[in-house]
Amino acid sequence: MAKRMRETTEVRQKQITEAALQVIGQKGINGATTVEIASAAGISEGNLYRHFRNKEEIIKSVIDKIGSDLVAILAAVVEVSAPLQKLEITFKRHLKYIEGNVGIPRTIFSEETIVANENLRARVKNTILMYFQGIKQIVEQGQRIGVLDTEMDSQAITSMFIGTIHFAVTWWLMNNFSPKLTDDAEGLWKNFARAVTHKD
């Protein structure tokens, strides 16, 4: 019986986390109240507090979900042998992932998570560092076989990769989600690849 209750709690926590991401996408972190999150999850606010102590715990769960999703994006290219192809697939999937979840940039880049709340800031930092290291490993693989520019530091190339995505997402948000991130993905990728591939 205890195991069944635990599984039910885990499912409910997942539902609340996904609901929170949806509400944050609509109203931002400050505008996402526990009442609205509970409503989006189809439960009462009182029931929500049975699964999370407070709003901060919900936001932590959202950040953890984003981290898990980014790990899944990296894991999906493990079997791809060509490093440049790995980076391309990851780049385009990352943009598609954000396009389908507006709450992601509104969580990761909010003042609450990167300025005001030290606990949330540390969690976001760890999430970004984890993803950064995953991309950096692919970059270094590409440099070892001579596909990517070896005169550039692997950390610099990785920063360019993530920075290109960051700029595209920021511009997309500022322009009210137009054009689609996936519409620009090919051009953005080609510009990045041209800048970092090995020159004979």
TrEMBL record:
Entry keywords, A to Z: DNA-binding
Source superkingdom: Bacteria
A UniProt-annotated Pfam family = TetR_N
Protein's UniProt keywords contain Transmembrane = no
Q: Does the keyword DNA-binding apply?
A: yes
DNA-binding region, residues: 33-52
InterPro entries (alphabetical) = DNA-bd_HTH_TetR-type_CS, Homeodomain-like_sf, HTH-type_Tx_Regulator, HTH_TetR, Tet_transcr_reg_TetR-rel_C_sf, Tscrpt_reg_YsiA_C
Q: Can you give the residue ranges of the HTH tetR-type domain?
A: 10-70
Name of this chain's protein: TetR/AcrR family transcriptional regulator
Species the sequence originates in? Geomobilimonas luticola
